[in-house]
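This section describes the prediction task in plain terms. A model, or a person checking by hand, is given the sequence of a single protein chain and must write out its three-dimensional structure as a string of tokens. No templates, partner chains or ligands are provided. The sample shown here is typical of the held-out split.
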Amino acid sequence: MSEKSCCVGVGPGYATPLDAFKNGPREKLLYTVTIQPNLDEPHGDYLSTIDVDPESPSYSQIIHRTFTNRKGDELHHSGWNACSSCYYVDKNAKKVPKRDRLVLPALNSDFIYILDVATNPRKPEIIKVIDGTVLKSHNVTAPHTTHCLANGNVMISVMGDAEGYAKGEFILFDADFNCIGTWTKGDKKALCGYDFWYQPFFDVMVASEWGAPNKFRRGWKTEDLNDMTQYGCRLNFYRWSTQTLYQTIDLGTEGITPLEIRFLHDPKRAEGFVGCALFAKVFYFKKKNNSDEFEAKKVIDIPEKVVDTGNGKVEIMGGMISDIIISLDDRFLYVNCWRHGDVRQYDISDPEKPKLTGQLFLGGAICSDLPNITVKEDKELSERPAPCFVKGRRLEGGPQMMQLSLDGKRLYVSSSLYSPWDKQFYPEMVTKGGHVVLIDVDIVNGGIKLNENFFVDFGNEPYGPSLPHEMRYPGGDCTSDIWLANDV
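The expected answer:
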């Protein structure tokens, strides 16, 4: 089945990104990957179903938990078996994709959980478990990003080989989640892996890099940067049709740990952004004129802060950009700084010159009430930000994963990055539990404001405080759906 024939037609979704932006319904459920930091707790990680319908009596509450009942998984990101961009016109099609399976890869155990979210969307159930040995048999581990493909397959990026050393690769599954094998062809391979996004109209896929599982699983260590074959600083471009790596751009020191990567949603624009975590830089990349090659340049530079953490030793604190997200109309870019504690909104009408239009502090490591922190130098702020409270609860940790409503008016923000790093940087959050908050967005003039009526507290969970990470809506969202350039 060709890609064009697969996704041109009455299916689960929307004809274009703007169709979803203008006509998509308001989200009512928020599926949130939730990590159990207590590795001895047998129920393990779980998917929290949060009610986000303001007309519901259970608004802003967890209404269901789907446990893996396995220790040590570290669920991280999730994805769908079919994009909400699979839009069908052919009513006589023999088979129309259904967006009814949520895929949950586990970063540490290499297991993959397949959930039925269609039978009862409020109570998803695990219907298939793919053992971690399946990935190891193909010499890959640490599955990360899941994307549905137009031919019905599902592709998941991985970050390690069977021994836990860095490896940039992708693993394919068919519609019934039988493993097909690795995706990349040819002799040229990426050194590291993490996130990816594809634009078939330009015959291109781009992937970013984090690092080797046997490095990041033990927590952050600065000395790990001595070997940049095991920690990433590159963008890797593949020919979509031949599945071959044809260009690698080294972003240099400022581009260490390029994580979340996004093409603009418009499938006929070969340009996008990547957030580089460690030193809080955002790079813009675009296809060169009359060439298959891309170029990249830094367009957002968030200065590091010089701090004393109470031991008399001065250190540099980077912002730690661990997520970015683009509105479906390609107007606004959202950037988090997990360490500094703020979420930023940029107008990207001119993508090469992002304009800061909103900023909001949601905790972080430099709050004014933290007694052991002294900020020695701050090129942006004249005073330390105040701690943030919602419904009487102090926000511990910093803003982490984000998910934007289809209409761009609501931005949900969670607090957990990765539990070994949470324990290292924000032990208080691990002890008290994480949270999900809601930011209201002005999509006309720009600007963001905390919604004081929404707060999901993960501090009083059935088996102890837990850590919320990535979020999805059943009806499509701003990070899982990729549109093909079809004339519909």
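For orientation: The CA atoms of residues 362 and 388 lie 6 Å apart.
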